[in-house]
# Entry
Amino acid sequence: MELVISALDDKLWKVRQAAYLLLVNKQDSVVQQALQEYQKSSRYDVFVAMGRAGGVSNVDTLMESLENEQNTAITKLVDYTLGLVNTSEGKDRIRHYLFNGTQIQRNYAALYFKRKGAKDILIEAVQQGCIDRVQAFSK
# Structure
C-alpha cells in the first residue's frame, strides 16, 4: 500500500492516475489522508505542466481526458493546455490525433493547428475526411 501511495507523487500523470484509481475505494485512514492531500493539488496546475512539457504521454493524457470526462471545464482546460504544447514531439502527437483520434480529439487537434496557422495540415485533414472544411477554416 505504501508503494501505491508514494506513486501519487510520481512525475508521470498516468502513474499518479493509476495510483489514485487503485486507492480511491480503500477505507484505510492513511490512504484517505493521502488521497485528500493528492486532491488538494490543482488539476489546472497538473494540466498546464503537461502542456508545457509537451511530451507524447502528456498529449495522450490530455486527449484521453477529452474522451473520459466530457464536461465544459475539462474541454476548456484541455483546449488551453494543448495550446501550450510547443515541442516537435507534442505537435507530432497532436497531428496523430487529427488523423486518428475520435471525433472530439480531432476537433481539438484541428483547433490547435488552426490557431498555429498550419493551413497545410488542415487542408490534408479535410481532404482525408478527418474534419470538415467549416471546422478547418471558419473564424
